[in-house]
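hey can u run this one w/ pyridoxal-5'-phosphate bound, need the structure tokens asap thx
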Amino acid sequence: MNPDLDALQPYPFEKLAALKADVTTPEDLAHIPLTIGEPRHAPYAGALEALTAHIGDMARYPATPGMPELRGAIADWARRRFALEGLDAESQVLPVNGTREAIFAFVQAALDRSRPARVAVPNPFYQIYEGATLLAGGTPLYLDCRAEHGFRPDLDAVPAETWRDVQIVFTCSPGNPTGAVTPLDELKKLIALADEHDFIVAADECYSELYLDEGAPPPGLLQACAELGRHDYRRCLVFHSLSKRSNLPGLRSGFVAGDAALLAAFRRYRTYHGCAMSLPLQHASIAAWNDEAHVRANRDAYREKFAAVTEILAPVMDFPAPEASFYLWPAVPGGDDEAFTRSLFAEQHVSVLPGSYMGRPGANGVNPGAGRIRLALVDELDATVEAAHRLRRHVERHA
Ligand SMILES: Cc1ncc(COP(=O)(O)O)c(C=O)c1O
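ok here u go:
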């Protein structure tokens, strides 16, 4: 087998299962998991109706680039959402089976192994960036996201000679696990660096539609391009998904959009990869991209949970004020995220993810996720509020 497989780290949830394996939990408290980032709000009904209405299309093979109607619905959505002058549905949009699959596959298609191949990823981060890099024969470059820099990478801290070997830079805004949003100016700076050092910017924007201020949607990479007059989106790609936006993680539907030359190569790769989206799923996706009312309702539900949980936890834990995504990223008292996770599970029957499991030791040898935990506020309001009360009780008891 491919020896690069041995370089893959266990997934954070495997490490968590091992951490909790021998813990005895209280029998009188139901388990509340705040661990996996899987939305539990109701999936968008219009998409499910479209899915069943077109179920007969299972009898047909789908094509790699997807139906023109789907690419059109995506292009219209992205143009509206990010104030783009244009986005060509034929050459600048490609439907994919969710961002996870697309991120993984894109790195395989894009990395040039004949020269040094570094892939810059935010740290802490969504582990697929790293696994995709290792299996493509590349080397991850971890860019620490620390509180001092708004939980975003400090681009100025990367020396020119390091940029030279970088072929792809991943951004994750809104960020998992921190919820941090990258401002337009920083995206523009990254585009300038991409031109200077000849790398691709791959923007994972799968949380872009879950934001707290209805009047301030997070900016996107294509929007930054448009503001620069870069309407060919050269060197830039964005990755979007219906999983969080429309509560359809099981649909496996998203898209990649941007630079037509990169997408043409990626499309060619995907023809061999054999991952075309089935036709009923494409119809469901069209329905979802064409509707915003359900996304607004989704945001309202997260807003209500963030407000309730912040009120309960802010007096006892320190965390960045959430702007977007469905995560909270608090520091744990005492600074040991693994020990806190274990004792919280043992005493309060609440599961959280140790922040160190999502990070790697950075430039200074310190894991920037250490000392924090990730809380995914995906459950319904009552369970989430109950979990927050138990967390607070736990912190107060051990103060
Ligand atoms: C940062 C980030 N990117 C990508 C994904 C993958 O999402 P999907 O494949 O459902 O679009 C996730 C899922 O949790 C994520 O947190």
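The longest strand covers residues 139-146. anyway lmk if its weird
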